[in-house]
Amino acid sequence: MAKCSVCGKGAHFGNNVSHSHRRSNRMWKSNIKKVKCNVNGTPKSLYVCASCLRSNKVERA
């Protein structure tokens, strides 16, 4: 599973809880995109989450 190169956000784990309160494992996947970014002036492809893209923490190439 990919992690955000900027903030380090990745997958989170927890439980599905049914009406009868039985539990099974589940996973919340963060919205991560592969994006070409300028890193020190050169274009490089990085995995970046959507919240970092929206807040302009990354300069797109």
UniProtKB/TrEMBL annotation:
Can you tell which superkingdom this protein's organism belongs to? Bacteria
Q: Which keywords describe this protein according to UniProt?
A: Ribonucleoprotein, Ribosomal protein
Q: Which InterPro entries match?
A: Bacterial_rp_bL28, Ribosomal_bL28, Ribosomal_bL28/bL31-like_sf, Ribosomal_bL28_bact-type, Ribosomal_bL28_sf
Tell me which GO cellular component terms the UniProt record holds.
ribonucleoprotein complex; ribosome
Q: Name one Pfam family in it.
A: Ribosomal_L28
Question: Which GO-annotated molecular functions does the record name?
Answer: structural constituent of ribosome
Q: Which GO terms describe its biological process?
A: translation
Is Ribosomal protein found in the keyword set? yes
What protein family does this chain belong to?
Belongs to the bacterial ribosomal protein bL28 family.
Would you tell me the protein name for this molecule? Large ribosomal subunit protein bL28
